[in-house]
Amino acid sequence: MTSIQRLSAVGAALVIGASALTACSSPADQSLPANPSVIILSGDGMGPQQRTAIQYYMYGLDERQPMDALPYSGFLDTIPGDPEYAVTDSAAGATAWAIGQRVPNGTTGLGPDGESVPTLMDIARERGMATGLVNDHDVTNATLAAFGSPVPDRDLKVDIATGYLDNGIDVLFGGGEKYWYPEGEPGMIPDEGEDDVSEGDQNLVARAETEGYQYAYDQTTFDALSGPKALALVQDSAKRRSTEIEGYDYNSDPHYVAPEKLVSKALDILGENDNGFFLVIESDDLDSDAHEHDAQNMMLAGESINEMVKVITEYQKDHPEVLLIVTADHETGGMTIENVLDDGEPEPNSDQVADDPVPYWAETPENMPLPGGGVPKRSGPFTIKGTDRQFKVDWTTPEHTGTMVPVTAAGPLAERFSGVHPNTYVFDVVNELWGSN
Ligand SMILES: [Zn+2]
């Protein structure tokens, strides 16, 4: 589909929306704000047990963690529209939110047959709203691409970056600068290994600047961003995980910008648009940690999500027209919370010889049961904050699982998220809020 065909498809969707809006005249609809903004915050892989572990370890038993303190909560199922698989990947999970249809795994913002359909971000842009994408990892990752740059294959990272510029997404903050620079140009963050080598064939940063984007690559240039268009390619939060392995200290890395600062700046810039904004945020770090069976860093990523939620709920105090939705595309790792001891004896972890992943820093798996039944490295024990009690975690798979995921929400129509719904419901509620369904 060409961009013109794409726009007419959006137009058609909006015409349908306009007639639906005319037909609606209940008091509930009249109480909705005139120009509502929407924020979707996804903790990739953040299932019920992850949320619980983050609560125990970071916040204890007396204070409810910010993402769970939102006034409305429910569950979303996560099954993809796949002929073979019962468990979704991030691409299909985010696409369900973005276009309101279940699609096969790997599909990134396109319809079930690979056809181009309007995403929530297209609809927002048609409404004259500002648009933004923020990630603590590559901004070109599948979840955000499903909204801002639909592609047939989630691995087409350079195409995804190009599509963001083609689609004029106003705010693009995250890591993965190698996809924006041509081969042979290292960019502004020093390369440290093969993983960092530039991959594209054109300089997309230069193109962005030509098209009016401000560009940031470290804390100082980031602080100077004022919009309305801004591109920040900074150090991945994932690098934090190498702290104890390589002695890396993100606090002293000038290219590291904390995720909550990315969100705060995005709100400052996007909030300038009188028509409202649509912002999608992902913590990809949490999923990567769970794939590697790294509970400690998964919970640290969860703390970052809570810090982002705090920034947003503070913003909502002056901007009650903003709907915040906090959820996940799926669970990762089949994680469970267990006692450290069973009748005084160590509680063994499940036999993971076949399933345990080899983390990037090691040559062998590290979560197999230890001799004598000790808690494996990176599974705990962890202390429940403010108590003497400990828990450990166990894992059933290095992959995703098919459990329902919690959703919490605050703002206009947040009450719609009470109960159990399909993941496509996110699309439905946002369209209802915008009067475009
Ligand atoms: Zn994953």
From TrEMBL:
Superkingdom of origin organism: Bacteria
One GO molecular-function entry: alkaline phosphatase activity
Binding site for Zn(2+): 44, 287, 291, 329-330, 400
Active site, per annotation: 90
Enzyme Commission number(s) from the entry: 3.1.3.1
Keyword Lipid metabolism among record annotations: no
Top-level class of the enzyme under EC nomenclature: hydrolase
Cofactor: Zn(2+); Mg(2+)
UniProt-listed PANTHER family: ALKALINE PHOSPHATASE (PTHR11596:SF5)
Name of this chain's protein: Alkaline phosphatase 4
Keywords in alphabetical order: Hydrolase, Magnesium, Metal-binding, Phosphoprotein, Signal, Zinc
Gene3D superfamilies found in the cross-reference section: Alkaline Phosphatase, subunit A
SMART domains xrefs: alkPPc
